């Protein structure tokens, strides 16, 4: 087996730095794979290809989490059109107004400092 | 011999350690030791009789039902003669964050999910969306658990609870208020298992392991294939097949109620009602003490005790119900019980079906 030169997370993060949401594609399973990993969970194969999402998706599940201090915030699961699901949040909308079925579009959030970029979503019709 | 055989092992001793808020500086090992000591006394065996110990919690709250299957395999193969399953946690006295530290997950941690409640809230959102389940129906699960707890002298909660009190309590992660979420208590205990032959010579009537099943579907909630269908479906099927029983044959139901949605999901997936009907099924007291399906008869993780990983307590309560030791909360004429454990964020599911001598 070939030595892995770059971790799945490093590749994913490098795409985010470029403003892209990357995911993997399993040619054997003909399915999208997310989170990025070394072995396809459907087939056990180590053949996984990288692809870049168009950044469009639909809210699959949503909640508003209430911290003991600070404002409540949204946490959602987003089904991307390419067939993978990820945890994220919907911005530009009150957290309780986020609805299952809402169409959303990617926005890469850059927290600044040492913190890595991560993918959030905004309502498609306001984007 | 092919696989686990119905009734090839029995539960002969059960006990809780001190529960609730235990004495200062007690350790999880202290609580395990106390639980084991009491459980051995319950069956009349001694520490020297024990040659198998199962106390890992890598599968969270479902670990204990996995341990029952593994202990049964070891007993059936003659690898050990007396197995002890034990647990202890001091998460209330030392604080939850110290008790269970979560790893940083680059795909989830940036979104600040309050785990595990946020993950279960996402599952509840899906159930409400697909099936019309309401917050009032979720609250009915908490109220039923409280009504059972009021019949259990060692339950943490001592006061009645109403639907409107659940709904107006402090919000944790919508649709859950703090009353939709399990307690944070200390506690431990032990279950002693042995062979059917040996079991019959001990102090209490043996409770036989009739069926076991397990399923692991995901680690993180974003990897769960369908948030409304849990691994309790295959784990329950396997346990029923081994036991030769179905849901209508079960007299007492003990389900891991970390959150109110759990009870609804597991009632559906274990076949007590059709998928999507769980909310309507639990409304109007059907699973409460005067209802027609006794569920979580000790008061559950919601109102009796929840020390981090609660699964062991479901086995203790199921065994006590089948021995008819439960006083005011005793289910009449029960001969079979199901104890269903849940771990992670609906990640691992493990089912055990128990029965009295009459079923074996």
Please provide a brief summary of the model.
Chain A is built from one helix and eight strands, in the order H-E-E-E-E-E-E-E-E. By secondary structure, chain A is mostly beta strands.
List the helices and strands and how they pair.
The complex is a heterodimer of chains A (127) and B (360).
Chain A: H1 8-17, E1 22-26, E2 31-33, E3 49-52, E4 56-65, E5 73-80, E6 85-88, E7 103-109, E8 118-123
Antiparallel strand pairs in A: 1-2, 1-3, 4-5, 4-7, 5-6, 7-8
Chain B: E1 10-16, H1 28-43, E2 52-54, H2 63-77, E3 82-89, H3 91-94, H4 96-99, H5 117-131, H6 135-149, H7 163-168, E4 171-173, E5 176-177, E6 187-194, H8 196-199, E7 207-216, H9 232-243, E8 252-255, H10 260-269, H11 278-282, H12 300-303, H13 311-323, E9 336-343, E10 348-355
Parallel strand pairs in B: 2-3, 8-9
Antiparallel strand pairs in B: 1-6, 1-7, 3-6, 4-5, 7-10, 9-10
Strand percentage of chain B = 15-25%
User: Helix- and strand-based class of chain A?
Assistant: mainly beta
Integer average pLDDT of chain A: 96
Please outline the major beta sheet of chain B: 8 strands, mixed
| Oligomer description | heterodimer
Task: Estimate the mean pLDDT confidence of chain B.
Answer: 96
Largest sheet of chain A: 5 strands, antiparallel
Distance between the termini of chain A: 44 Å
Order of helices and strands of chain B: EHEHEHHHHHEEEHEHEHHHHEE
Inertia-based shape of chain B = globular
Which descriptors would you attach to this protein?
heterodimer; A: mainly beta; OB fold (Dihydrolipoamide Acetyltransferase, E2P); 3-stranded antiparallel beta sheet; 8 strands; B: 360 residues; alpha+beta; Peroxisomal Thiolase, Chain A, domain 1; 8-stranded mixed beta sheet; two-stranded antiparallel ribbon; 13 helices; 34% helix; globular
Description:
- The complex is a heterodimer of chains A (127) and B (360).
- By secondary structure, chain A is mainly β.
- Chain A has one helix spanning 8-17; strands at residues 22-26, 31-33, 49-52, 56-65, 73-80, 85-88, 103-109, 118-123.
- Chain A has one domain: OB fold (Dihydrolipoamide Acetyltransferase, E2P), CATH 2.40.50.
- Helices cover 8% and strands 37% of the residues of chain A.
- The model of chain A has no long low-confidence stretch (mean pLDDT 96).
- Chain B is 34% helix and 17% strand.
- Chain B has 13 helices and ten strands.
- An eight-stranded mixed sheet of chain B has the order 2-3-6-1-7-10-9-8, with helices on both faces. In chain B, strands 4-5 form a two-stranded antiparallel sheet.
- At the A-B interface, β4, β5 and β6 of A face α5 and β4 of B.
């Amino acid at each position: 087996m070939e030595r892995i030169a770059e971790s799945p997370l490093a590749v994913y993060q490098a795409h985010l730095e470029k403003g892209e949401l990357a995911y993997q594609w399993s040619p054997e399973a003909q399915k999208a794979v997310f989170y990025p990993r070394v072995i396809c969970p459907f087939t056990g194969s180590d053949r996984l290809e990288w692809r870049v999402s168009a950044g469009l998706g639909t809210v699959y599940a949503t909640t508003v989490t209430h911290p003991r201090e600070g404002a409540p915030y949204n946490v959602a699961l987003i089904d991307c059109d390419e067939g993978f699901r990820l945890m994220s949040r919907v911005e530009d909308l009150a957290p309780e107004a986020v609805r299952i079925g809402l169409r959303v579009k990617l926005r890469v959030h850059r927290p600044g400092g040492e913190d890595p970029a991560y993918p959030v979503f905004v309502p498609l019709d306001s984007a | 011999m092919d696989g686990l055989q119905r009734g090839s092992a029995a539960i002969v001793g059960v006990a809780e350690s001190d529960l609730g808020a235990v004495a200062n500086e007690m350790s999880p090992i202290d609580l395990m030791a106390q639980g084991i000591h009491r459980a051995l006394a319950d069956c009349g065996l001694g520490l020297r009789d024990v040659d198998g110990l199962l106390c890992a919690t890598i599968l969270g709250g479902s670990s204990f039902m996995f341990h029952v299957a593994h202990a049964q395999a070891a007993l059936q193969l003659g690898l050990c003669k007396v197995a002890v399953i034990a647990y202890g946690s001091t998460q209330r006295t030392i604080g939850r964050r110290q008790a269970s530290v979560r790893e940083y997950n680059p795909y989830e941690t940036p979104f600040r999910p309050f785990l595990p409640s946020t993950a279960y809230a996402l599952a509840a959102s899906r159930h409400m969306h697909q099936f019309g389940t309401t917050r009032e129906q979720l609250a009915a699960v908490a109220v039923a658990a409280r009504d059972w707890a009021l019949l259990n002298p060692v339950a943490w909660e001592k006061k009645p609870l109403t639907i409107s009190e659940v709904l107006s309590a402090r919000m944790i992660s919508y649709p859950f208020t703090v009353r939709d979420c399990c307690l944070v208590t200390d506690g431990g205990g032990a279950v002693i298992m042995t062979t059917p032959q040996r079991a019959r010579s001990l102090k209490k009537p043996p409770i036989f392991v009739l069926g076991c099943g397990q399923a692991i579907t995901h680690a993180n909630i974003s990897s769960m294939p369908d948030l409304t269908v849990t691994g309790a479906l295959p784990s329950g099927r396997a346990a029923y097949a081994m036991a030769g029983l179905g849901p209508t044959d079960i007299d007492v139901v003990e389900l891991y109620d970390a959150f109110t949605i759990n009870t609804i999901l597991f009632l559906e997936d274990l076949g007590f009602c059709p998928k999507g009907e769980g909310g309507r099924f639990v409304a109007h007291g059907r699973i409460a003490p005067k209802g027609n399906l006794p569920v979580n008869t000790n008061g559950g993780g919601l109102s009796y005790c929840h020390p981090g990983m609660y699964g062991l307590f479901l086995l203790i309560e199921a065994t006590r119900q089948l021995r008819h030791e439960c006083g005011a909360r005793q289910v009449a004429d029960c001969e079979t019980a199901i104890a269903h454990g849940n771990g992670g964020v609906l990640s691992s599911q493990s089912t055990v079906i128990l029965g009295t001598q009459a079923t074996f």
